[in-house]
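Researcher: Re-running this chain for the archive, since the previous output was lost when a drive failed. Same request as before.
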Amino acid sequence: MHWRIITVGKPGHAWVKAALDLYWQRLKHHGCFEHVMIKEGCRAQVEEQMTAASENSLRVLLDERGRQLRSVELAKWIENERISSRKKVSVLIGGADGHSEVFRARADACWSLSTLTLQHDIALVVLAEQLYRAHAILRGEPYHREG
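Model: Regenerated structure tokens:
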């Protein structure tokens, strides 16, 4: 499966870049993962760019009002999409203005990493780690522990 992670702007801190490098390196063994950074702008411009960047893929928006998944549930979701022969998934992390109600309604899925509002660099790192964790669960690797 091809994953496209779409964010607004470039990561702003060295620690974010280091964390992403770590998880992108780990994830390359589990599929194709691409990070697409779009230009900042007003919400309408950002949503237009996100729509274009996620063309022909299942669109998953990250938003604090979305559905919260446990790591095992995310792994099951990924497995179900694989079984259904899903080719592309785009995960969209909004900018400072978030996603509009209309944009959320047009998405195929809306997930929440937390009920807290997360700065988009932090959301990106959490997403990368959770994607790695979900793939490790699917491969039976000891990274994830249920307690």
